[in-house]
Amino acid sequence: IGFDVQDNCALPPRQQSFLVDPAGQNLVREFLTQYYAIYDGESRQQLLEAYHEHATMSLAANYLTNDSRNSPTLRLNSYISNSRNIIRITERESRRRYLRAGKLQVVSFLSDLPKTTHDLMGCAVDLLVFTPSMIVLTMNGLYKETTTNGNPMRSFHRTFVIVPNAGGGFCIINDMLYVTNTTKEQEEKAFAAALPVEAAPAPAPPAAPPPRPRRKTPRRRR
Amino acid sequence: MAEVIAKNIDNACETAEEFTKIFYKQVDNNRHLSSKLYLDTGLLVWNGNGINGSDKIQKFLMDLPASNHVLKTLDAQPISENLVSNKLSYLIQACGDVSYQNDDTKKPFQQTFVIVAVDGKWKIASDCFRLQVPYS
């Protein structure tokens, strides 16, 4: 005779995307497409327009646990040296310093990170807040470093807090990024959708026209 | 002014440390109490599944297998105060490994919270949990 212990403990199936409001779908897609066209492009300087004057940005990086692979491409030196992991960085002064504040500092910091190509099609995107005064969206996915030896792939988790700006568009006021190595499972499925993001089939439009309070941003300067 | 901002940065970090200690202890050991950490109108997005409201969050969490979270990386930023109903609010990112009752392997996870100060207590306005797995 056995015991009636919980047997069925599978995890709920995962979904690629969550939208707190379907009306936010177009804005999120346009924002990410435009942002990463610049971020993955020649110069990240053009992202200046995408950030609020008092924007803050921080990066934290860490290695995967029990990763037995041994390759120089797995080294995260260019991230770890800037990592604001407050479990390790315990002094207030250092914690303040590792938080990049003001759009000039933020964009100059981003410009120094390795050049990338993101797998936007394989990204999980969650829209957590969508109100006229504030948008919060989180991404989970991977990118390839394009000018690093061996073109290593990295896994990232990133959150943007976005607010309306004076010009009738939007800008990023908080940007928080986590970088680690990709797992083998992630690498096998990486860039599986070979289509560029612009060529993706448009998802079904929301039932009602989205209340677009402002124009989208960031806009690419030519 | 600069003094206030610096203090707020310090406070965001120290609150994040305290908050995550309590949060993961409750989720791993006292999950039936977890809903108290969320706003009544709080939102949990668990691997892309959205759960609205602390009552539903409680039920969802209770149905997950027993867990053990180990935090490896933590980061926090103040959110501009006029954004979340004029309340003090912080953005917190916690990353580490989680293992579940049905499977001893350590799975990397990343979790981002927006917490707000309401009547002298910190409450989760939104909680986004993602396992580090392929999503395509």
Automatic annotation (TrEMBL), chain B:
| Cited function | Has a role in nuclear-cytoplasmic transport of proteins and mRNAs.
What is the protein's given name?
NTF2-related export protein
Q: Which InterPro entries match?
A: NTF2 (IPR045875), NTF2-like_dom_sf (IPR032710), NTF2_dom (IPR002075), Nuclear_transport_factor_2_euk (IPR018222)
User: Which PROSITE patterns does the UniProt record give?
Assistant: NTF2_DOMAIN
The record lists the lineage as: Eukaryota, Metazoa, Ecdysozoa, Arthropoda, Hexapoda
Keywords for the protein's UniProt record, in alphabetical order: Cytoplasm, Nucleus, Protein transport, Transport
Which Gene Ontology BP annotations are present? mRNA transport; nucleocytoplasmic transport; protein transport
> Where in the cell is the protein located?
Cytoplasm; Nucleus
Tell me where in this chain the NTF2 domain is found.
Answer: 15-131
**What is the superkingdom listed in this entry's lineage?**
Eukaryota
Which terms in the GO cellular component ontology are assigned? cytoplasm; nucleus
- Establish whether keyword Protein transport is in the entry: yes
Q: Which organism is it from?
A: Arctia plantaginis
Q: Which residues form a coiled coil?
A: none
The family database entries (PANTHER family) matched by this protein are listed as: NUCLEAR TRANSPORT FACTOR 2 (PTHR12612)
- Primary location group: cytoplasm
What CDD domains would the database entry show?
Answer: NTF2
Q: Does the keyword Cytoplasm apply?
A: yes
